[in-house]
Specification:
The protein is of the alpha+beta class and about 160 residues long. It has a domain at about 35-135: 2-Layer Sandwich (Alpha-Beta Plaits). It contains four helices and five strands, in the order αβαββαββα. The protein binds iron/sulfur cluster (2 copies). The site of one iron/sulfur cluster has 14 residues, from helix 3.
Length: about 160
């Protein structure tokens, strides 16, 4: 008797799998579902007070297996302070042509400054546009009244 039940269960699984199910989405009208741990375009995060989390230690550049990250540091001054540390990233670039989205840069960053966000739309017309500058990666300053950052994916792990 139990053998027949197992056969019926097996046939039921086969029947369910044989029903046609859509595997495509009508992109760009229909947005694909992005899983929470998806590693897309880099994001440079800020502290809640608006200061940049990046202190230009260049650990991310050292850890990157493809040499996709370029960091140039500069000193903060009291008159012009960008980050809480002594230094900030005057230049921060990610070459998306080289990047393999391994996430090492995010793992080694001591301040949670760089995270890989959900943005997967990275097609460009020129190679030069594939160099993402700090200005393109840095999240906007938080709203002065609410403290809420616009378009900011939550940093993971820190
Ligand atoms: S995700 Fe990997 S390959 Fe891309 S910049 Fe970071 S460390 Fe380099
Ligand atoms: S993103 Fe993180 S690891 Fe890279 S330079 Fe800035 S603080 Fe250092």
């Amino acid at each position: 008797m139990s053998g027949i039940i197992h056969v019926i269960e097996g046939l039921w699984v086969t029947f369910r799998r044989s029903l046609p199910r859509p595997v495509t989405v009508q992109y760009p009208e229909e947005r694909p579902h992005i899983y929470p741990r998806y590693r897309g375009r880099h994001v440079l995060n800020r502290h809640p007070d608006g200061l940049e989390k990046c202190v230009a230690c260049a650990l991310c550049a050292a850890a990157c297996p493809t040499g996709a990250i370029y960091v140039e540091a500069a000193e903060n001054t009291e008159a012009e302070r960008h980050s809480p540390g002594e230094r900030y990233a005057r230049v921060y670039q990610v070459n998306m042509v080289r990047c393999i989205f391994c996430g090492f840069c995010q793992e080694v960053c001591p301040t949670g400054a760089v995270t890989l966000g959900p943005d997967f739309e990275l097609a460009q017309y020129t190679r030069a546009d594939q160099i993402y500058s700090k200005e393109r990666l840095l999240v906007p300053k938080p709203d002065a009244n609410t403290g809420v950052q616009a378009d900011t994916p939550a940093p993971r792990g820190r």
